[in-house]
Design goal:
By secondary structure, the protein is mainly beta. It is built from 5 helices and 44 strands. The protein is 10% helix and 44% strand. The strands form 2 sheets. The protein has a 30-stranded parallel β-sheet that branches. The chain has a 14-stranded parallel β-sheet with strand order 2-5-8-11-13-16-19-22-25-28-31-34-37-40, with no helix packed on it.
Length: 486
């Protein structure tokens, strides 16, 4: 009998797969840095040698003459003593932190704001400390990449940080920070961590920030203004398994200072990024990676909400909730593409004056609810958005316990259901359209507890339920008008 070529190919593929699986089961359980650099522990500890070079050479450090430099304590750059400093390296040089703390710690003395009038004369001598052109690896569970404290105009560019705890850690106070063209990858903590820091003016641009387990760009408490995240690829910054989490690819969290008005965040721009992963990584509809994770999570506080935020021009996908906003005001979410939620797209709670306009919501290759929810929020606008194939019978767009809401020019196609208004007042729905809503779904559902709901120029067909008596206006289609009158 002649062998079957198709069966032969399948057998070979299965053999390769089994071989790969066995290899993984038998893999060395050493940390990944040691797997990459088997001679790691035999490398000399050059901490003291490098620190002496820093202290003797006006603070500048050039790493050259070797591929690997292993240290066990932070290299400290005292800007008060040395003024402006730089850390650079020959191409291909790696700095290995084999101890706790940051590989590079830059400490300045600035106590003022970004205003020139607040600068002490000597502070200008500390301007623009630079780290450029090297890789930092962590070989200790508490190793960090770079720490900045009380610096002015620090510039970090073309730097890779891997296998550390936090990639770039900002503490105490800093001003006018630039982080560009960096790769912050596979760290156990945060990629860029604004840790209870007083910081105005920071630009994070053109970076890959991925697989950092506690978040990508993270702000926790502190007093932060003028944070710009632009042109970055930010992916999978949360647990890699089914561990529940509140982490996010971009996370601003003020819940740790709920009763403190001195901790506040405002004036934030997140633009032109791809931000995604990791809910669908399990490959199974029954499992979710990092349940609770979000692409963008703004967790404000009632005492001092997060305000003046623009989220625009991003591609967003593949987390439990794509964007999660609570206790925010004056936030614009515009011209973003939402896809592959697991399960929901956007949640806005306890917020005011949130504008959602010009976005597309489409699960794409997945069957998902993709719900957009506004809860206990006021004076918001949702306009000029498309909602496609949202697989939910409870409402694709839900307005719950809200007031002063405007919904206009929304287009629902092939959804399980459309707009749900419940326990809300002062809602205007105009020029909205729903087509091919599921047979057992409603294009519009207004409950009996809702009041002052106005319907103007909409096209919802007959799949309308209006239980409240305080509803005015018309549906555009004759069948819709008849449904409203019943």
């Amino acid at each position: 009998m002649q062998p079957n070529p198709a069966l032969t190919i399948r057998f070979l593929c299965l053999t390769v797969a089994l071989s790969s699986a066995l290899t993984n089961l038998c893999a060395d359980d050493r940390p990944s840095v040691e797997l990459r650099i088997p001679q790691l522990k035999s490398l000399p500890d050059v901490t003291q040698t490098l620190q002496q070079q820093i202290d003797a050479g006006q603070g500048n450090l050039k790493l050259s003459g070797a591929e690997y430099f292993r240290i066990t304590q932070p290299l400290v750059f005292n800007l008060a003593a040395h003024g402006a400093v730089s850390v650079t390296a020959d191409e291909g040089v790696t700095l290995i932190m084999d101890g706790p703390g940051p590989a590079i710690r830059m400490v300045g003395t600035h106590n003022g704001t970004a205003s020139p009038k607040t600068f002490e004369p000597q502070t200008w001598n500390q301007r623009m400390p630079l780290v450029s052109g090297l890789e930092i690896l962590g070989a200790h569970p508490e190793a960090d990449g770079i720490e900045l404290q009380q610096t002015v105009e620090p510039t970090i560019r073309a730097v890779a940080v891997r296998e550390c705890r936090h990639g770039i850690h900002l503490v105490t106070r800093n001003r006018n920070v630039i982080i560009s063209d960096c790769h912050l990858y596979n760290n156990s903590g945060c990629g860029v961590f604004l840790d209870n820091v007083d910081l105005h003016q920071i630009n994070v641009s053109g970076c890959h920030i991925s697989y950092n387990r506690e978040g990508g760009v993270v702000v926790r408490d502190g007093n932060v203004r003028n944070l710009q995240v632009s042109g970055c690829d930010i992916e999978g910054n949360m647990p890699p398994d089914e561990t529940a989490t509140t982490a996010a690819n971009v996370l601003i969290d003020l819940t740790g200072s709920a009763d403190d008005r001195t901790h506040s965040v405002a004036e934030v721009s997140i633009t032109g990024c791809t931000i995604q992963h990791a809910a669908n990584y399990s490959g199974s509809e029954d499992k979710t990676v990092a349940p609770g994770g979000a692409n963008i999570r703004l967790a404000g506080k009632a005492l001092y909400p997060i305000d003046s935020v623009t989220i625009s021009g991003n591609v967003l996908s593949d987390t439990t909730t794509t964007i999660d906003l609570s206790h925010v005001l004056d936030v614009t979410v515009t011209a973003n593409s939402f896809f592959a939620p697991k399960p929901n797209n956007l949640r806005v709670r306890d917020s005011r004056r949130v504008v959602v306009t010009g976005n597309t919501f489409n699960p794409r290759q997945f069957v998902r609810p993709g719900i957009v929810l506004f809860q206990n929020s006021h004076d918001c606008v949702i306009s000029a958005c498309t909602f496609h194939a949202l697989a939910t019978e409870t409402g694709g767009l839900i307005i719950d316990g809200c007031s002063g809401m405007i919904l206009t020019a929304l287009n629902f196609s092939d959804c399980g259901s459309g707009i749900v208004i419940q326990n809300s007042t002062g809602v205007t729905i105009s020029n909205c359209r729903a087509t091919r809503t599921a047979d057992n779904g409603l294009s519009l559902n207004v409950d009996a507890e809702s009041t002052d709901v106005q319907l103007l120029g909409n096209s919802f067909g007959t799949q309308v339920r209006v239980s409240g008596s305080a509803v005015s206006g018309t549906n555009q289609s004759p069948a819709g008008r008849e449904a409203l009158q019943q």
